[in-house]
Amino acid sequence: MIKKRNLVFLGAPGAGKGTLAQILCQEMKLAHISTGDILRSEIKNGTELGKKANSYVTSGGLVPDDLVTDMVGKRLQEKDCQNGFVLDGFPRTIPQADLLEKVMVKHGIKLDKVVYFEATEGILIKRLTARLLCRKCNTNYNTVFSPPKAKGICDKCGVELYQRPDDSLETAKDRLRIYNVQTAPLVPYYKNKMLLATINAEQAKDKSYPELLKVLV
Ligand code: AMP
Asked: How far apart are CA 4 and CA 194, in angstroms?
């Protein structure tokens, strides 16, 4: 069993945060809060928030801090978060981290650990551009490292897989540039708060998952 249950997963796009968050949350009954998944679903459903976020998500830019922080603040108050949660892809800027802290203090929630998924840029580009996702259950595949059993079809749902438009080579490079400028400073930020644990995210998930569990005991 793990003791640390209120978590932030930090790392560049393609580092495998979503993949390990899905496995961990299912096994430990934690709420998986992926801001990217929520935004994509808002866009698909044509909501007000979706309309505001669309151009940023499509171009690989960051959605304004207040919009995302509001969204996360509301989500954290839902009942399933009481048993613990993984924030996957949030915070992505120092102002978002400051706002998160305020929201948590307000609602009496304590952050237990920030897990940093460390990986080099070459691997990230390879992973992002070969990534495929299930339209129904969001499971991640990779045409090189972890292909589905049947080409282009989800092993679990039998549904067609798709490539995220922002996983094209050009947009993936832009997202990594933005990560380096806006999000990477969160590594020393959380280190200073004594919350950071680093895992080697260059390995396959059967190696990185046990490493993740170790830092959460
Ligand atoms: P992800 O699925 O985490 O790669 O996120 C996909 C896209 O959603 C990002 O490129 C941003 O446009 C947007 N997004 C997700 N999380 C955030 C966040 N915390 N702050 C701003 N934009 C975000």
From this structure: 14
Domains of the chain: which residue ranges? Answer: 6-128+176-215, 130-167
Q: At residue 216, does pLDDT exceed 90?
A: yes
Q: Verify whether residue 164 is a known catalytic residue.
A: yes
Asked if residues 109 and 102 have their Cβ atoms less than 8 Å apart, the reply is: no
Candidate list 17, 40, 113, 127, residue with the active-site label: 17
Kindly state the percentage of the chain with pLDDT values over 70.
Answer: 100
92 catalytic per annotation: yes
Indicate whether residue 11 lines ligand 1 (CB < 6 A): no
Q: Annotated catalytic, 135?
A: no
- Work out the pLDDT band at 115, boundaries 50, 70, 90: very high
Residue 144 has pLDDT above 90, yes or no: no
> Is 75 designated active site?
no
Residue showing tokens 């399933």: 80
| Topology adopted by domain 6-128+176-215 | Rossmann fold (3.40.50)
Q: Is the peptide bond before 91 cis (omega within 30 degrees of 0)?
A: yes
Tokens for 159, please give them: 């549904």
Task: For ligand 1, say whether the CB of 68 is within 6 Å of any of its atoms.
Answer: yes
Closest ligand 1 atom, CA of 34? 3
Residues 6+ apart with CB under 8 A from 174: 59, 60, 61
Atom 2, ligand 1: which residue's CA is nearest? 36
